[in-house]
Amino acid sequence: DPDYYEFEVNIFFDDAFELCDENVEDMVVNRFVKQFVEVIDEAASNVHQCNIKLKPPKKYPTPYGGRLEWILPGGNKLVVHLKDKIKIRHRKRWSQVIERVEFYLQLA
């Protein structure tokens, strides 16, 4: 089918974590990440014009913070990268973050 193609979507959140109100040592995702997670099913449903309920994302810790991964209808992947300013200097460019991660992966 010439109209079929595979793609991967990558979304990046700077400063994606904040201190937890209940325990000052715990970090939780901020309201923007929470809102994104809350509306992903609605967005998918609007695109496909039917009710869609995606499986919860797989969660991965990373050297820069964290990563969420969904499999979208059709099998394409949606990856959300969550930068933790405690792990990666505040205002550091994402390109520098990704270069560092690639370097670590080459060492593994």
From TrEMBL:
Q: Which PANTHER family match?
A: CHITIN SYNTHASE
Q: Which UniProt keywords apply?
A: Membrane, Transmembrane
Protein's UniProt keywords contain Magnesium: no
Q: Name one GO molecular function term.
A: chitin synthase activity
Q: What cellular component GO annotations does this protein have?
A: cell periphery; membrane
Q: What is its main location?
A: membrane
The topology of this chain with respect to the membrane is:
Multi-pass membrane protein
Q: Which GO terms describe its biological process?
A: chitin biosynthetic process
**Subcellular compartments:** Membrane
Identify the InterPro entries for this entry: Chitin_synth
Q: At the top level of its lineage, which domain of life is listed?
A: Eukaryota
- What name does this protein carry? Chitin synthase
